[in-house]
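lol forgot to send this yesterday, sorry. struct tokens for the thing we talked abt
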């Protein structure tokens, strides 16, 4: 087909395919046959099914939808239809069974290989045709992994969508994407998976199929705005997976396409400054430009800023440069919202710009932007954002040593946040830090300690390692300078060094036990239960040549004849380090044969029975096993057995 292919041609082609499908089902009545149908779109599949039912009488079509966990097609069909295997060939058999969802099966290759090996069982047990609905990629896999099974089928019956419908499909999905991202603002990052647009989702597959079909069938390239939206989707995929450099490539391409779209729509001169530095970025804007395109371009700019902010987390040595880049892009985004008169969007996306100003210690600019932001958020009534604004103003007051005002602002931020159940733990711990800091400088040391200790408990280091370290340092300084509790200050200093090492802020931990490396989770992602796979073997283990020792320990633990392994040696040779920073993370990442390891580390043996019992409760909490309330040696041994 070419770009001259008309809607009538597609309708005629689909009608011909529909007649072929109806005829194939009718000819196979009462006997098994395999019919293959290629259709990339869910809505089109529904239309075809409806037309079959309308055009045929006494047809009993049954539909089977495969789940991602499906491992066998034959047994799934039997269970879905409630068939009795020895009596499948009965008058109760359906006219045909339509099988959907092959593309969603996780282990598709294994499923298809199993189908190919057991091909004869279908003819022996089913007295009706099986109609497999295939996407393009599934059809290719079927030919590769189940060639014998496929040989039973005649030529694949194909259904196509008209070019206008394909374009509308992409437009609807991308419009929905931007609407949801804009509605969430900077307060909540919605990954593509949440928006049902992750690479393995049905909607994502349909978008990609639509783009491919437009080019393959109609020789039509997408308009700039649609191509820009798809580049935006690809960038978000890479960003969530911390492939930041790749994400920036897609975002920059998206910005170029949006610029091209704006130029074509407005017949204006260059708008290249929108994708460059923030200086004079608004000079070429005109009220005649299409607002929707400008707003979407601003949203992409915001995501570029998120990339640079994430790079600052991943590469602390160059964080100042990355923070400055992030600030520039956030400002460009806000400039467009202001020029287009969308103060409501400015209110939603202003927080990261304030955050960057704080990290760059640009206090005058932060005071000005936070004051403006507070006005916007008081109008919108968003208490979470109002609390953030008070937090930034508290930081400015503290830098000016106006501790009375800073204390008042910190209390206000915390009070407002407590009224909102959805406030994040990161935000709550930040307000507690600000409050504890002001209490310290006002001489209320006991209350400051209690507040900072609670901030330490609330803060999640895996999301906000920098904030956690700031809380620990504030506590250490308070214990050392004001309370003169040098032992507690020393413990906090040691904890800070270990956390810095675990999250990559410090390259060498010194003369101390090594700890497993931990991954700094992107703070914009929604907090979730952190699995142990975020523990990584410490870099020093491999650098010191101890990685081989870890492998030897793992190998011993997999052997049935090794019930107990003892690691021994003089004090200071690294026994604890190789266990905590090498073996334990390795066990969490690997199974032992067919068993899942649940490592427990005991370092103190004063009350080891209670400690071991509680540790066992924690690691087996997700299983049906539970320890008795009274923990004894006998109870522990029984549960371990």
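and heres what i got for the seq, position by position
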């Amino acid at each position: 087909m070419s770009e001259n292919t008309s809607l009538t041609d597609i309708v005629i082609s689909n009608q011909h395919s529909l007649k072929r499908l109806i005829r194939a089902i009718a000819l196979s009545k009462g006997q098994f046959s395999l019919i293959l149908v290629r259709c990339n779109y869910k809505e089109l599949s529904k239309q075809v099914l409806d037309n079959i039912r309308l055009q045929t009488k006494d047809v009993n079509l049954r539909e089977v939808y495969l789940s991602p966990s499906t491992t066998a097609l034959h047994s799934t069909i039997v269970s879905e239809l409630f068939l009795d295997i020895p009596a499948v060939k009965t008058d109760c058999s359906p006219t045909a069974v339509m099988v959907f969802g092959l593309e969603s099966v996780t282990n598709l290759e294994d499923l298809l290989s199993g189908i190919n090996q057991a091909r004869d069982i279908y003819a022996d047990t089913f007295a009706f045709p099986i109609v497999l609905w295939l996407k393009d990629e599934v059809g290719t896999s079927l030919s590769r992994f189940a060639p014998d099974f496929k040989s039973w089928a005649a030529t694949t019956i194909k259904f196509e969508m008209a070019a206008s419908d394909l374009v509308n499909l992409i437009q609807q999905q991308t419009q929905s994407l931007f609407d949801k991202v804009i509605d969430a603002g900077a307060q909540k990052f919605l990954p593509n998976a949440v928006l049902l647009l992750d690479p393995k989702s049905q909607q994502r597959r349909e978008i990609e199929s639509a783009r491919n079909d437009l080019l393959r069938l109609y020789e039509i390239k997408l308009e700039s705005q649609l191509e820009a939206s798809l580049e935006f989707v690809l960038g978000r995929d890479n960003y969530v997976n911390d492939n930041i450099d790749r994400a920036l490539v897609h975002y920059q391409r998206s910005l170029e396409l949006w610029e091209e779209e704006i130029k074509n729509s407005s017949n204006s001169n260059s708008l290249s400054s929108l994708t460059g530095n923030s200086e004079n970025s608004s000079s070429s804007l005109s009220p005649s430009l299409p607002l929707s395109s400008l707003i979407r371009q601003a949203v992409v700019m915001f995501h570029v800023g998120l990339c640079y902010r994430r790079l600052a987390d991943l590469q602390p040595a160059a964080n100042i440069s990355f923070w400055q880049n992030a600030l520039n892009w956030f400002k460009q985004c806000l400039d467009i919202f202001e020029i287009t008169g969308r103060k409501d969007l400015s209110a939603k996306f202003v927080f990261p710009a304030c955050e960057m100003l704080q990290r760059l210690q640009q206090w005058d600019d932060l005071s000005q932007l936070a004051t403006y932001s507070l006005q916007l958020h008081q109008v919108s009534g968003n208490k979470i954002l109002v609390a953030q604004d008070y937090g930034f103003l508290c930081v400015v007051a503290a830098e000016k040593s106006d501790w009375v005002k800073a204390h008042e602002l910190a209390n206000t931020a915390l009070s407002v946040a407590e009224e909102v159940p959805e406030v994040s733990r990161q935000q709550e711990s930040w307000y507690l830090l600000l409050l504890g800091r002001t209490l310290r400088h006002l001489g209320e040391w006991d209350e400051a300690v209690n507040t900072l200790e609670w901030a330490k408990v609330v803060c999640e280091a895996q999301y906000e390692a920098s904030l956690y370290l700031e809380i620990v340092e504030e506590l250490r300084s308070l214990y050392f300078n004001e309370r003169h509790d040098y032992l507690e200050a020393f413990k906090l200093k040691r904890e800070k060094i270990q956390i810095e090492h675990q999250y990559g802020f410090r390259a060498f931990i010194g003369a101390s036990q090594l700890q497993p490396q931990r991954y700094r989770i992107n703070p914009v992602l929604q907090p979730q239960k952190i699995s142990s796979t975020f523990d990584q073997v410490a870099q020093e283990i491999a650098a010191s040549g101890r990685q081989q020792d870890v492998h030897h320990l793992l190998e011993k633990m997999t052997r049935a004849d090794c019930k107990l392994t003892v690691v021994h040696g003089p004090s200071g040779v690294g026994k604890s380090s190789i266990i905590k920073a090498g073996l334990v993370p390795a066990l969490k990442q690997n199974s032992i044969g067919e068993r899942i390891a649940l490592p427990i580390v005991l370092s103190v043996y004063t009350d080891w029975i209670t400690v071991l019992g509680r540790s066992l409760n924690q690691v087996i909490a997700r299983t049906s096993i539970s320890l008795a309330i009274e923990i004894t040696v006998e109870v522990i041994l029984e549960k371990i057995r």
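The beta strands are 33-38, 61-65, 96-100, 129-134, 157-158, 517-518, 535-536. anyway ping me if u want another try
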